[in-house]
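User: Can you help me understand a structure? I only have the sequence.
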Amino acid sequence: MELQEAWIAKIECLAERARIGEIILFFADPTHPTHNSENGKKWQLKGGENTINMPSNSGRKRLTILGGLNPLTLRPTMLLTEDNCDTLMTEAFLEQLREEYPDNGIPLVVLLDNAKYIHGATARAKELNITFVFLPPYALNLNLIERLWKFYKKTVKQNRYHKTFQEFFDATVSFFQHIEQYDQEL
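Assistant: Let's start by predicting it. Here is the structure, written out as tokens:
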């Protein structure tokens, strides 16, 4: 508990630095949604009134979404791919972050987990004036982007069927392109 409280204080300090313009702060992490429906959190007797029957598909094909969330604007930066998440993909995501937030002397500080492929992108991050702050293990609750992933899955996948992978991909792209329509819920 003390470790969590110490990290919360550290994050609050970073957020304050972002508010006064010393840094640009991001919470980042990938997610890997599969092309399949997810049942909502409902339970009832089989065949009960208002039962929802959902078709499904193989669920073998998946997206990788590398995402960063700016906690001040609540605007995400996303890199969508069908490839696996690795060092090269992480470097491409960092370059995309820098395109959206040009280096005008203000460093980008990115809070993220300790994945091996992220450590591989450390040199490129330094070149781009991006500082990594690694969150402690098993502390998903400290990474705000996890809440965005949960909302994305609820909105795009839960109790929804996308017949083709392209439909699933398009629904994902549309969600992030029109994310401002969810400002109240977010």
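Now, to help you interpret it: The two ends are 27 Å apart (CA to CA). The first strand starts at residue 24 and ends at 31. Let me know which part you'd like to focus on.
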